[in-house]
Amino acid sequence: MLEWLCARGFAMKMFLLSVVMAIVCVGYFAPVALGQQHGEPKRVILDTDPGTDDALAMLLAFNSPELRVEAITVVAGNMTADAGLENALKIASLAGRCDVPVAKGAIHPLLQELNTGKFWNGANGLGGAELPPSKCKPSAEFAPDLIIRLVHKYPHQITLIPVGPLTNIAIAVAKDPAIVPLVKEVVLMGGGITGGNVTAVSEYNVHSDPEAASIVFNAGWPITMVGLDVTEITLVTDEDVARLESKPGPETTFAAAVARFQIGTYKGTGIFHGGAVHDALAVGQVIDGTILKTQDMRVDIEMDGKFTRGMTVANRKNAIERNVPEGDHLQSMGLEAVQPNVHVAVSADSPKFVDMLIERISGK
Ligand code: BDR
Ligand code: CA
After folding, report:
1. What would the 3-class secondary structure string for the chain be?
2. Which domain holds residue 45?
3. Which residues line ligand 1 (CB under 6 A)?
């Protein structure tokens, strides 16, 4: 009897143990199949046109344990694609990150000519800060193909961080729309709902390739738009750079030189009291989602307007008037809802972000 009970007890324990193991295994592996484990670094691809603030965005990403930078993809924008690639490789080399593929992408926007940005970035794109030749080598892959390959390799895990014109991302979507539901989210620097920096209403990255932006904004994936509304109020000052330099290092010295150039350029406009580091803020939001507050809105890209090409047209009420034909004219009948497609960043904890940027890059 005792033997029988012991055998029953043993069998029961084994049964319970296997149930517990099954629950643990399902709980562990199911999220792996769907996405990432809580607490694991986020896999990100930074699509960039370096670029002063792009350079700071790269350094912030490389120095943040919350992120696993799977690739740097370069698009023509602030610089030609070749010059941008060279800068990206030099920055990766400076950060000791030749393990990260750096791939060249589109050499011009989809339909219009390239508009580079010497005024905001200096002739070398890095505010005149010189870097030694890169030890890193470029990837042989075309950037949109690399994006497609990595999204399929890590389904539901990749966060795209486009911080240049959206040409590479649009090409990737056009070539392989299957990536859209496989991308975790897109956190882009671009646009603005309260004004532009190229024209009265158009921001540089969207203005540089509105057709590409339209493809990206209408793709159907989760988008956070880190636009001028938040990047132009999140400024780095001389005091911040002094803090940065208090712990010197090669990356720190380079970042300080870049930031000083930006501060000088922005202050020189007479509009700003410090330097806007637009792209780095988008990276900061991926690291810490509490930095920006967002509001869901329907955002369309103006591709035609005489004064408004490249504008991110935001519907703050998510409603438009419903008009129906009545005789020889239209009659308003009420409102109809429009579906929001973008989380628009509307306010920022700027000191929190600037502290993060300074702390992560100083002493490096
Ligand atoms: C954006 O335009 C570029 O010049 C900057 O790198 C940033 O991505 C700001 O409008
Ligand atoms: Ca940029």
Report:
1. CHHHHHHHHHHHHHHHHHHHHHHHHHHHHHHHHHCCCCCCCEEEEEEECCCHHHHHHHHHHHCCCCEEEEEEEECCCCCCHHHHHHHHHHHHHHCCCCCCCEEECCCCCCCCCCCCCHHHHCCCCCCCCCCCCCCCCCCCCCHHHHHHHHHHHCCCCEEEEECCCCHHHHHHHHHCHHHHHHEEEEEEECCCCCCCCCCCCECHHHHHCHHHHHHHHCCCCCEEEECHHHHCCCEECHHHHHHHHCCCCHHHHHHHHHHHHHHHHHHHCCCCCCEECHHHHHHHHHHCCCCEEEEEEEEEECCCCCCCCCEEEEECCCEEEEEEEECCEEEEEEEEECCCCEEEEEEECHHHHHHHHHHHHCCC
2. 40-313+340-361
3. 51, 53-54, 78, 117, 120, 163-164, 189, 197, 203-205, 278-279
